[in-house]
Amino acid sequence: MAMYLLYESSSGYGLFEAHGLDEIGQNTEAVRSSVSDLSRFGRVVQLTAFHPFESALDALNQVNAVSEGVMTDELRSFLELNLPKVKEGKKPKFSLGTAEPKLGSHILEATKIPCQSNEFVLELLRGVRLHFDRFIKDLKPGDLEKSQLGLAHSYSRAKVKFNVNRVDNMVIQAIFLLDTLDKDINSFAMRVREWYSWHFPELVKIVNDNYLYARCFKDDDDKSSSLRHIPM
């Protein structure tokens, strides 16, 4: 049975055919060992079709749909155009490997294209991701990195924008920061008391307040002057 792989990159959808699985065997370890070798991996997995995104906004909409396990009309057209036709009443002679199980379920439900998502498929897709810029000949050096960075920023901003708890998150972070500062101040005060006790051990029992103790430690040069400046 033939296997195709759907790879969602930051620049577009890629469809790959794994047509020589006998080269590496139907096991995850064999795939993992062959991924780093492009010459070997390229004999097994080859590019079938590539559909670039029209714009940065289109890329964001597509990746949002993929993350939610939804097949867009654009993805459906791409798959139906480049995959073998699924005949009614007959068992398909191919399968489509996807990284997202929910997306695979939606594709199967809507198009009857059999999908699978397992460790074997994920290792094949890892190899595709590693050598993706070698498969797409029209990509210039740096284009893929720029699209990944731009999409990552847009995706993160969109997630924060629609997070209903975003205001609470700021309050939670501020409280956490205050707690951290309190712990750090207490730790530093303990170290000051410990170190200065070698010079003036009696001061620990006389001054309990950390701030006053630090002032005595900073301003005074000897024991007698320390005692004169302690507030009564």
UniProtKB/TrEMBL annotation:
Its main location: nucleus. Residues 170-222 form the NOSIC domain. It comes from the Eukaryota. InterPro entries: Nop56/Nop58, NOP58/56_N, Nop_dom, Nop_dom_sf, NOSIC. SUPFAM superfamilies: Nop domain. The keyword Transcription regulation does not apply. Belongs to the NOP5/NOP56 family. This is Nucleolar protein 56. It comes from Sinapis alba.
